[in-house]
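PROTOCOL LOG
Step 1. Enter all chains and additional molecules of the complex.
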Amino acid sequence: MADDEFTLIYRYFSSMGRGEAVDLSVGDDCAILSLQPGERMATSVDTLVAGTHFPIDAFPEDLAWRAVCVAASDLAAMGAEPRAMTLALTLPEVDEYWLAAFSQGLAGVCHLYQLPLVGGDTTRGPLTISIQVMGALPTGKALLRAGAKVGDQLLVSGTVGDGAAALAFFGNQWQPPPEQAEYLYQRFYRPTPRLDLGKSLLDKATAAIDVSDGLVADAGHIAAASGLALQIDPSLLPLSQALAAHPDQQVVRQWALTGGDDYELCFTLPAGAPSPKGCTVIGEAIVGMGVHCGLDIDSAGGYRHF
Amino acid sequence: MADDEFTLIYRYFSSMGRGEAVDLSVGDDCAILSLQPGERMATSVDTLVAGTHFPIDAFPEDLAWRAVCVAASDLAAMGAEPRAMTLALTLPEVDEYWLAAFSQGLAGVCHLYQLPLVGGDTTRGPLTISIQVMGALPTGKALLRAGAKVGDQLLVSGTVGDGAAALAFFGNQWQPPPEQAEYLYQRFYRPTPRLDLGKSLLDKATAAIDVSDGLVADAGHIAAASGLALQIDPSLLPLSQALAAHPDQQVVRQWALTGGDDYELCFTLPAGAPSPKGCTVIGEAIVGMGVHCGLDIDSAGGYRHF
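Step 2. Run joint prediction.
Step 3. Record the structure below.
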């Protein structure tokens, strides 16, 4: 029975399921979660497909990290606190080494972000990793895409463009110096879901989204949902050392504005409100539609899944 | 933008997201769900992979039904009431006809089982359909696999073996008469999650599971979790007309005991408790381990995903 679905799940994933909101974890027909009085549940699902979202030969430990960070970033973008997650894992074959490495990565990231693994499904097929995260939100509060007001400041956390730069590096279109190569590798495979920031913005931000498809594309969702335009000043975009040192700053600007995979928070604050630590004002909300950055960039120019 | 992920999701799936527990549906970074005071959340995820769980050329409308029914069956097996679901859909290409038919099936099954579609992810890759269901359970109650007592009756709802018979029919190993062929087709692609039965068993059954991997294999999980053995009398197995009319009753018995995909509830009731309508006593809980049926069947002989 070494290759049996149940044995696999039990062996590799059953120890990651404990958490304060978890009444029943992996091992029955459903998991059972409890919310505290005054809490609602926020939930989101993200799928990574081999060959589409990551190279076929990516390290399984890195894939586990990336899959969970990407999904957790949606909790951050709502201001929700992580409570639990499930994993739908499709594998071409039973590879004990792959599973051991993947589960090691999963255990690390589960623990770091307090996302116990409470359930899942393991099936045979082309490698696909689907993570559903569940978080808690105080009743009546949430960071939505709608809500920005004309005159609001537009901000972004961390640095942008690193995801696209990493992909250019992986695709041999650019060779960064070694220490920056390592930095970009980590940024791509272990992006930081801005959970603390998201939670702290619940009473402050008027709108928020995470930068998964590209800054312009994602800001475009805030603009559309809020019924206004967002003006971005490209000279204000926060860049990592890796990108600031790149010889072609036009390429860097393109990465920062349209590259996806940064998993930073893009949000609006009322005029005059102080910037949270680690965040940068990059523009403002104005009357109109779409996202304007003074460059010839399609406002839907972010990463498309088709 | 006709082939853009967002457009796809909005066009095909955005109208299915309303429900009493749904505070925020498709269209933001997360969906938001509310539970009533005294409720907990039960959740489960099930993945169907083309070529593994269904033929590549299966009708998309049927796939939507089957994916949701299979996932909802896990709510039934816990006694939970459906509240919402998410869909992680991986598609090899944008096929508007496929999506239109799939979403039509999804809309039908969502509506029937009160499972509004509150979120999802659409990605490019080999056809994979992952449904996560979320349901509500009264605090402190749930149908678990553990809890059966020696002397309990073992029951199953509906009829068993139809899923395996349907697969034999699809694989041209058997040609049922036309009206039974239609019945088996429907049983396979539109199995009935026993939601009302599950809920009604919350105060009655000592243990429960749904029959997805085969009666003997699934009863084996109850036996293992409850620390006892289950004795099944094969002559008591409830069979559909399609199976009762089959010329080889030995084959039928094999289907009924080890075939999966029936999505009936298998459960234990205290001795002397009346059988719920549509359910059949098929055996009892005894001292020991495993599942015994007087035939040479491996107790892990159900469907294996690897």
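Step 4. Note key features.
Confidence is low (pLDDT under 50) at residues 298-306 of chain A.
Chain A touches chain B through 73 residues (CB under 8 Å).
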